[in-house]
Amino acid sequence: MYTRTKQLLDLYSRFWRESPTDPPELPTVFTLEEQQQREAGLDVFMDKLSQRPKTVPETEPERRAARQQFFSKLRVMAGSLLGFDRQQLDVIFSPAATQSAAEFVARARKFDPGIKPEDIYQAARNVWAMNGLQYLLGLKVELTPSIFAYSLLYPYSDNYLDDPAIPVDVKCKFNERFGRRINGEKVKPANGHEQRVFDLIGEIEGQWDRRRFPQVYGSLIAIHIAQIKSLSLLHHNGSAQCVDVTGIALEKGGASVLADGYLIAGKLTEEQAEFMFGYGAYLQLVDDLQDVREDKSAGLLTVFTRNNGTMPLDAVANKTFHFSQKVMRSLDGFALNGRTAPVKKILRETALALLINAAGRAIDYFTPEYQTMLQNHSPYRFSYLAEKKQKLSNNKTSPAHWMQVFAEGGID
Fold first, then answer.
1. Is residue 309 part of a domain?
2. How far apart are CA 245 and CA 229, in angstroms?
3. Does a structural domain hold residue 411?
4. Is 12 inside any structural domain?
5. Is residue 176 included in any domain, yes or no?
6. Which residue blocks in 50-94 are alpha helix, DSSP H?
7. H helix runs in 81-166, sequence order
8. Angle (CA) 20 22 24, round 5°
9. Taken in order 86, 88, 91, 97, is the CA torsion positive or negative?
């Protein structure tokens, strides 16, 4: 598995090096009037979303009705404001996908009653993404033990390792014990946090036999190794010269979604593994771009912060646009049929939208000309999106709040 991950990293590192820095050809251009019309529609939607239930749903029929109402609103918004067609909406808001999301929220709260709403929301987004990959792989869409466990491992491990307040020696000791547990050893947890992490590994072991599906655990080791390497992006003593910033980013992101695939299916074809790794590498770049301001402040090295903000990000953003096009070509390795076609279309269309939105959140790091170009290809003005992001941070209107409404036992 290590050899295969290294091969994929070499492939996508070459794709990154070969990606040009000249401006890409972007499809849709939005006029100011079109942007304002969409913004007005989104305002109406958010007003509806902010309306708290007068009573907390206590029974499963009541929670089911609340879920249906919430996802019905989301479907209308996705269709009218984001441009998804009926086939795409049927995939995104299928009964199986919405049921999976609701089951995850309820199980997460049972697993850890003290879990933060924002952590549930972050993990639930990964559940939804893995459900989409089930569609792509021709599998039944459902919340499996591995999807539940791996989605929660993000807030419990990845966020823990990214926290600059936790000393590096503490992280190293955690990583050592975590790696041994992934390898199947019986390890005594140092605290309650580690106990939960180890319990999640146990959930995966309950679904995938280690001897029959070694690649599942090999993929977990691969992302674990990538996480360890990523510590050098934060603890680098002010020098970026000896750190392979791009390689670490591609490996961490690629190994993460590659693990998604193995945890979903147990085994992957060469073509499937290639797409999973590339898509994960691309998503890591998108995350790093949208977080450039916070990462720069925290001293975290990424391909977007390593010049310390002394140069505009126009060229590296262009490179990322071209890189995404290479990644999306690897989708051709999946069978095309009535079930996978909408998913492929969603992935290709949202890849571009994600990058434009990420660039909009880092808009101050681009030249004025580039800012104008990006704005023209966004369905919403970046200033408007920043305002709405602030409003969503209010728990009363956040998706995290609503997802708790669906959980068994309601909300506090």
1. yes
2. 10
3. no
4. no
5. yes
6. 60-80, 86-92
7. 86-92, 95-111, 117-136, 145-153, 159-162
8. 95
9. negative
What separation in angstroms does the CA of 213 have from each of 1, 3, 132, 257, 277?
Answer: 12, 17, 22, 17, 19
- Size of the chain, expressed as the number of residues it contains: 412
Distance CA 8, CA 19 (A): 16
Domain that holds residue 374: 2-6+31-51+59-404
Helical packing angle, 60-80 and 399-406, nearest 10°: 150
The CATH number of the domain where 238 resides is what? 1.10.600.10
Q: Token pair for residue 262?
A: 């193995």
Q: What's the Cα-to-Cα distance from 274 to each of 53, 127, 269, 383, rounded to whole Å?
A: 45, 21, 9, 37
d(CA 115, CA 113): 6
Residue type, 203: E
Over the range 109-128, which residues count as b (16 or more CB within 10 Å of their CB) and which as e? beebeebebebbbbbbebbb
- Inter-residue contact 325 to 279 (CB < 8 Å): no
Look at the chain and report how many structural domains it folds into: 1
CA dist 306 and 380 (Å) reads 29
Query: What's the Cα-to-Cα distance from 81 to each of 9, 67, 75, 207, 377, rounded to whole Å?
Result: 36, 21, 10, 39, 15
CA torsion sign for 104, 109, 114, 118 is positive
pLDDT in tens, the chain (412 residues): 778 899 999 999 999 999 999 999 888 899 999 999 999 988 887 777 666 555 666 677 777 777 777 777 778 777 877 778 888 888 888 889 888 988 998 899 899 988 887 788 889 889 999 999 999 998 999 999 999 999 998 778 877 877 778 888 888 899 899 999 999 999 999 988 899 999 999 999 999 999 999 999 999 999 999 988 887 887 665 555 668 899 999 999 999 999 999 999 999 999 999 999 999 999 999 999 999 999 988 888 999 998 766 789 999 999 999 999 999 999 988 877 778 888 898 899 889 999 999 999 999 999 999 999 999 999 999 999 988 877 666 545 455 555 555 554 443 3
Its pTM surpasses 0.85: yes
Instruction: Print burial letters for 30-42: b (CB count within 10 Å at least 16), e (below 16).
Output: beeeebeebbeeb
**Quick one: DSSP state of residue 24?**
P
